[in-house]
Every structure is written in structure tokens, then in C-alpha cells.
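Lecture 7, part B: from sequences to assemblies.

Below are the input chains for today's worked example.
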Amino acid sequence: MVAAFSFSKGLTTLSGLLLLSFGSLAASQIEVTVENFLRVLTGRIPPSTPRSKRLLSDDRSNILIYMTGHGGNGFLKFQDSEEITNIELADAFEQMWQKRRYNELLFIIDTCQGASMYERFYSPNIMALASSQVGEDSLSHQPDPAIGVHLMDRYTFYVLEFLEEINPASQTNMNDLFQVCPRSLCVSTPGHRTDLFQRDPKNVLITDFFGSVRKVEITTETISLQPDLEIMESRDKKDWMDEELMEPLQYAEQLPVAQIIHQKPKLKDWHPPGGFILGLWALIIMVFFKTYGIKHMKFIF
Amino acid sequence: MAAALPLAVLLLLLLGPVGGGHAEPPRDTLREELVITPLPSGDVAATFQFRTRWDSDLQREEGERITLEKDNCHLLVSHYRLFPKALGQLISKYSLRELHLSFTQGFWRTRYWGPPFLQAPSGAELWVWFQDTVTDVDKSWKELSNVLSGIFCASLNFIDSTNTVTPTASFKPLGLANGTDHSFLRYAVLPREVVCTENLTPWKKLLPCSSKAGLSVLLKADRLFHTSYHSQAVHIRPVCRNTRCTSISWELRQTLSVVYDAFVTGQGKKDWSLFRMFSRTLTEPCPLASESRVYVDITSYHQDNETLEVSPPPTTTYQDVTLGTLKTYAVYDLLDTAVINNSRNLNLQLKWKSPPATGALNRGLVFAEAPPVPFLYAQRYVSGYGLHNGELNTLLYNTHPYRAFPVLVLDTVPWYLRLYVHTLTITAKGKENKPSYVHYQPAQDRLQPHLLEMLIQLPPNSATKVSIQFERALLKWTEYTPDPNHGFYVSPSVLSALVPSVVAAKPVDWEESPLFKSLYPVSDSSSYFVRLYTEPLLVNLPTPDFSMPYNVICLTCTVVAVCYGSFYNLLTRTFHIEEPSTGGLAKWLANLIRRARGVPPL
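Predicted structure of the full complex, as C-alpha cells:
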């Protein structure tokens, strides 16, 4: 599962809140591929893609990327059939940085040996958290006896528990997030990487990535809307005039049996031979008579 | 309600200062209905219908855009009130004449539940009629499916030429039409599409009252998806504005049908109530709606009216011929203040006063007579064994005792099932039944699917079997989905039929009439038009072993390394004799120490 949120601070409107759990972005599971994920990040999507499926971030957006699933040293599995490597991810983030598609990026990964995924990042303003170090496994939290499958991973569970206490006005900073799920609870050692981040983590609020507040100004003055009289009068006149002119319309018959049975297949119309065919045959005939002499003509014509 | 007040004020401001008291009639209306039908098998079907009619001719306004000045032209098609802007802009941008989109989960069991008001195939279905002015229909179709996938959060972007067909006789336009050139029609089904809350939310957002007031309050996702059949659809078509039918209005019809398994939700009793079905009750009508009604089908209850009651008792009943039979409905009008009185709470309930007679636990025997079998129902299955060949069979049942009627069958088969059309056989009552119209368009690999349309006359009281053999193709290994052993879907067949009705329908002003009568226009009242869908099929294709490329690479590299490597060594390795080294610095230092110790040197 992959989720990417993008928030913009400052004056621009919310550029694109997008749940890429392959929820609103890719609604069916078949759309969850490495290629689609990288295309969404870098913006290289076909032009017919609707707006709700684009990342629409700019250089003032903060992006949160959360990835979970099965993984290993340097890769994460997508849909049990393909993998994304840490180098590909690092290159995608560098492309985003070059195109100014993010201001700050928080990357959280919960897989086995998750720390290997952020080792290769080299773009600025990226902070990364992982649930386990290289060589360790991330474990799942509790099974459901009815289904027989584990429902959640430990790191995700404790991060969620931590985040549920955060409200949009909270002043908790990143250092508290780094302390979530110590080894005693998670069995694996969570790691983090902040050297690429320009600000000090203790000054970075959690709500920079996990919440967005819109500035709303309430005004008490009333605005009265004046309709444009000329448009309405001309429109009504046209309605009245055209009613007299048009003949009544009809609904189509749903199963016109007689019409369907007599629907003949479209025969190809016979066209007289075009200029090219005529010219070709004229050439052939000329060559023939030049070679063999004009005396043959009376036998042909 | 609080939002309605400033809205009304705004409307007054708009209408007020118009010169000379020029009363502007409202240009769009909303009508909402809920029909609760108990089905013969004991389940309860609830069908919502929200009709927004917009008295505006979008096409003509495009023409007007040319004549007026630039800054005025935006005003004409930019004021959307009840009609959602997202859909209005779609109609004008892609020059649509009609749009029908549905998302369904489950299957409507016609044999046990009776004919549906409006059935939709499992998955997502989209069919569109474009205007005559469109030059490149395929390009508009592709762009339209992408835009719709963004609006409805569904994977409609998977609609491409491999699952789009152009039917030649089915899917005639449901709205006003002058001439039906089928080259402007496109039809596609995605049977693999799963419907979930994320598709319901944008659908609800298109409603004017949007799950805050009126009937849409009942649309809570956690109960709606806990059903045997869930279908939500959007239909846009042009309709007559008045009885003379000289101008066009656009009608947006949003329908949602759910079937509740009464025994699962009702804990074994046949009672139902709105609260038990939807976990909500009706509180107030939508202030933007001109009509807001709940209809409860009480036809089958009249026979045993001592044992059960509908509460609160209805003030009016309505009798009409729907789907060929005369039905009685109890009407609850939410705009009538007597219905929602000071309790401000309407919870329709059906209660059994005394337990029904013998066999109460066996749901089939609760009614005195056997549940009525519909005149037309169908079944489809794949037969054969192995992963090479198979046979597609469709069984069409006509249970009418003496009347035969025509059925138009549309089959869309994906290209990887190669149909042998010479094996197409249609048999009824032991004899061959030749169709009066057959249209077949063969498939092209990876480009387009098979299209088979047939008009078959079903003899009375018979089962007609249409069968065709096919061969399964082997796909390229990158074309398999991540779960290839699940199978590949074949879209359901579409049956369009004129089924004879038991009771002739009275010709009424059916644009005003409620329920679903106005969706399918019929000129002949002795039969009604119905469109049924069969089950989608799951076909297993021969799947390769996906671990083989890795195994082959390992094995080949090992073999090459061992064989070639040793061969290369054998051919090119030469042996030289090497002088032993004299030792160098270490040996000289060691000798120095040994001389100091008095030991003979190395």
C-alpha cells in the first residue's frame, strides 16, 4: 500500500490532496504498479488523466509518502509481481526536486529492512522514517481470529495511535515521532534519516505534513447580485420564437423489430476506376504496343 | 434547512429587480422517489430515483455563443443550480446526446426476484450516444472515459478499444432522437470493477441535497454495501419539455437499487423497517425538491391483510401498471405535512401481526401460492474441460403460455477467447431456431473484441439455447494481471426484449408519472421493454509459470559459466615455470638477526 499526501503552505490553495492508497487515485488494484507510482510522483502522466489522479504539487507543497508491504534489503514489493528499488525511488525524488515539485518531503516506510530504502536518497529536504534496520524484520501486530490474517503492522499501529492524539493546533514536533515504537514494543529498531533536511527536526511540526489548515476569513457584508437584464430578455425571446418554428420531436423506439430485420449490411458502392488505375493501364498498353508493334491492335479492339 | 434560507434570499434577489415584474419560471426541478418492493423470495428491494430536469438547451446555447459578445457568452451556460456543473460541462464539451453509467456489485436474480426496474451488469458499464456533430468519436470516447474516471473515482480509464464495441441494433437512445446512426454509439463494460464507498461518495455529491435532507439521508454506505445487490447509476438524456415536445430539456436521473436479504438483516423475521435497512429514518424533505415520495409495494399484501400492517398507515394509495402487471403502492409524500408531523421522524415499518401459517421458516412457502416466474429470464455458463477449448452457452427462458416475443442478444467476448462462429447453434424445443438478424464483428488480437448481435424469436413456453465454441489464447507474459489464476472476465450478455404485459398500460403523461415508467418509452402498451443482463463469466486462460524466467536465467548463466568458462580455460591457459623468489627485504633482516644470534643463515 502506498499513500501520498501533498499540502501546500502559504498563499497557494490546496494544490492536491490525494490519497494514493490507490484509493481515489487508482481505484482498482491493477492500477497499482511501480510505473504508475513513479509517473504520479514525477508528473509524467498521459494528458488525458483527470485532475483527481494527478499529484498537482508545486514548490510550496509538503508531501507525505507512506509505504508498507513486503520488502527486503533495497526493495519493496508491489502486488506480489514487481519491486521498486531504493535507487529508483531516490532518482524519482531527485527528479521531483529538479522540477520543484516539493518543498519538503516526509517518507515513512514500514517493511522488513526498511532502512535500506532511504539509504540512497540524495535530494535535499527529505526526512525519512523506517520501521526496521537493515537485517531486521518488521513484525505485524495482531491477528484477527475470524479471518485468520494479521490486520496491521506494529509500527503502523503505534504511529497511528500516536497520530490520533494530534489535532490541527498541536505543537508536537518530529523528535516525538522518532520516539514512537521503541524496540520493546516493535521488536525491530525504527530508524530515521534527517541529514538531508535543512531544518532541525525539533522545529518541524507534525502538522506540517499530517494536517492542513485553510485560511478562512468571515465577512459580514452582503453582496447583492444583479442579473443581466439584456441576456435574460433576449434568451426568453428566443425561446418563444423557436417554439413556433420547431416541429415536435420524438423518442426513439427501443426495439424496432421490423427495422432491425431489414437493416441490410452496407454494400460497398461501385466507384469508377480512379486516375491512377487508368494511367497505369494506359502505360501498360502503350508499352505493349511499342514493343510488339501496332499491328496487334486490331485483335484487341 | 439552514442553507435553504440564504439560498431563497439569493433567489429572491436574482428574481426581484428584473424589470417590469418578469416572473422567471424555475429552470430546473428535482423529483425524488423511493420504491420499496418486497420480492417473491423474501428479500426487500429498495430503489431510489432522483430526477433533475433542467430546462435548458445546451446545444443552442453553443450557437448563441457565436452571436453574442465574448464576455456575455459565459453567463449562458455558467449558472448551474440543481443540475451538477461537472456533468453539465461534460455534455457541452464532448457533445453528448446521452450518457448512461452504472456501477454494480452483485447480480439481480430475475428468476427469483422478478423483472427489475432497471438492471445493470456487474462491474461498471458505460454507454454513450454522441451528437451528429462529433467528428472523431473514438477520441471523444477515450477522453470522456478518463474524465468520468476522475469524477467517479473509478478505473474507467481502462476502457479502451479492447473492450469497446459499437452495437448495431441494441441500445437505441432512451431520450429524444432524430435519426439513430449507430456509428455515434459506444458501449463498454468493465466486469472486473469493484464498487465501494469511494464510488458512492462522488455519486452522492451530485445530488442537490447531498445526504443532508430528503431521501438521500438514507444513503449510508455501511448499510448500503451490506446487501446482495447494489447498483448505482447516472443517466443523462434529452427529454420533452412540454406535451407538444417542441423543445428539449436535459434530464439527469440518478438511481440506486439495493436488495436486502431479509433473513440476514431481519434475524429470521420478515419484518422490515427503514431504520433496520438503512440505520436512518426520514426526517425532512429536501427543500430543493418539488416532489419527494416513498412508495411501498403492497400488491401482494392485500391478499393477507389481516396478518400484517404497514405503519404508519398510508394516506393515499396509487395503482399503476408497472412492468406489465397492475401494482398497488402505498404513497408517503414527504412534502405533505401530515406525513412528517411533529415527531419529525418517519420510519416505515412492516410488521407481521400474527406469525404466518405453516412453513414460516421455509421462506419459499410463506406465500399461499408459488412465487410468480417472470416471463423472461436467462442464464449463461461456460462448459467444456481443459484449458484449450470451451463452449459458451446462454439459456433464454420464455415462460409465457402462448405468446412468443423477440429478444435482441448482444454478446461481447474478449479477443483472447477465439470464437468459432461456424459452431453457433440456436435451438428451441429440439429444433433449430434461426435468428432474424445476425451481426457479427470478428475480433482483432489486442485491438477489438468479438461483437455478436442476434434477434431471436423465443417460442412460447420454451428454453432457447444459444451456444458457440471457443478456443483460449495464450497471452504474452506481460499481459497477465498480477493474479492470473483468478481468471479473466467475460462481460455479461445484454438481452433487450419486448415482454408481453399481463395488463395493458394506460397511456398517461408518462413524463410526469412516477417510478420508472418514464425511462423506457414504449408506443405499444401490450408489451413493455426490459433490458436484462446475464451473469459475467470467469474463464481460466492457460497461465505460464511466472517463476520460469528467473529459473531460466539462473540455469543458463550457470551452464554458460561452467561450460564456457572451463572450455576457455582449457584453450587459453598456459603454464610458465617461475623462479622462486629470493626473499627480499624480509629475508635480509632475518639473516641479520640470525647472525646476531649466531644461528646459520637461511
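Note for the exam: The first strand of chain B starts at residue 28 and ends at 38. Keep this in mind when comparing with the next example.
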